[in-house]
Backbone:
């Protein structure tokens, strides 16, 4: 098995600490957070009766499960490799590690896209939402993201393009200028990053536009009440009054929607853009164009996404917070 010759052991900070040592510590912390956070999300979503009734929460569970698998099957082996400064688990597991990493990244991105589509449909057509987003359609979405992820993830291993890259602390593609690798990376990044990013941006701005529409009372009163109720349920807001408090409540919900959109978009691009851009630069320009510490940083920040998603898509929602409280009261009887 080939191993990247570039070592990070000499990348020392001003206080004598190596950058890999910092990366190990940080990755261990976010791995623990990811394991606890995603396990809690899955548990409460499957145990709590109210959350089980919302079929769209299956997308949240799928996202949490993907992030949980990333922590167990990708992040922990990477920490081990960082500690030993080499890959110690063998060639076969290196290929598996690469395939799992790419698969989980793709599944996570596509699931985020379907979550934004679900919220966009709920905002734009609240009266038809229940008929549109059935458990069958949600199941098809989840099946599609896993098939899509697996198809793209196994290609590097099948073509023997995989090696352990010490600068990235993961088993990854051999970043060399090759026609096959360039074609694969171009198609994969288009289908698995740029298109999902476009979907996330489009539907989040659709949600914001619908919120502004509510604010100006363009829709009929009956539809207004229905949309407002739908938004409140999505965001975990309290019930909306139908008369005097409607304008104030609508403004409050608009503010929450705008903040939610901002967090979703920023976290998505902050965590995934460095990972994707550095890989594109390596295969299109050359490995030497990306400094080793930036390669490692892009991997660590990509791992961070698995720890932040539970907070963005679950803990920040009032219905999940209430479910956590009910679970804690049941467990500890207080």
Residues:
């Amino acid at each position: 098995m080939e191993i990247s010759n570039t070592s990070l052991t000499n990348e020392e900070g001003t206080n004598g600490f190596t950058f890999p040592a910092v990366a190990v510590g940080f990755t261990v912390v976010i791995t623990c957070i990811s394991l606890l956070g995603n396990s809690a999300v899955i548990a409460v979503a499957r145990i709590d009766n109210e959350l089980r009734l919302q079929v769209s929460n299956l997308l949240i569970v799928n996202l949490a499960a993907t992030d949980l698998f990333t922590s167990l099957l990708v992040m922990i082996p990477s920490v081990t490799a960082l500690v030993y400064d080499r890959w110690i688990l063998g060639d076969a597991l290196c290929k598996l590690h690469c395939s799992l990493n790419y698969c989980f990244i793709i599944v996570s991105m596509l699931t985020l896209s379907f979550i934004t589509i679900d919220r966009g449909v709920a905002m734009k057509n609240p009266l038809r939402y229940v008929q549109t987003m059935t458990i069958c359609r949600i199941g098809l979405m989840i099946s599609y993201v896993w098939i899509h992820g697996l198809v793209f993830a196994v290609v590097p291993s099948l073509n023997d393009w995989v090696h352990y890259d010490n600068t990235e602390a993961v088993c990854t593609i051999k970043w060399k200028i090759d026609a096959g690798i360039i074609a694969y990376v171009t198609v994969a990044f288009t289908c698995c990053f740029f298109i999902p990013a476009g979907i996330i941006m489009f539907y989040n701005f659709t949600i914001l536009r619908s919120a502004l529409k509510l604010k100006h009372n363009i829709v009929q009163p009956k539809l207004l009440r229905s949309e407002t109720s739908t938004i409140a349920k999505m965001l975990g807001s309290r019930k909306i009054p139908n008369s005097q408090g409607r304008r104030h409540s609508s403004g409050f919900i608009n503010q929450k929607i705008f903040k939610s959109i901002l967090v979703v978009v920023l976290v998505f691009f902050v965590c995934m853009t460095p990972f994707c851009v550095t890989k594109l630069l390596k295969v299109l320009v050359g490995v030497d164009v990306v400094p080793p510490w930036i390669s490692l940083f892009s991997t660590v920040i990509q791992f961070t996404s698995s720890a932040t998603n539970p907070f963005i898509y679950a803990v920040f929602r009032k219905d999940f917070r209430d479910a956590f409280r009910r679970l804690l009261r049941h467990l500890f009887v207080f």
Notes: The first helix runs from residue 19 to 47.
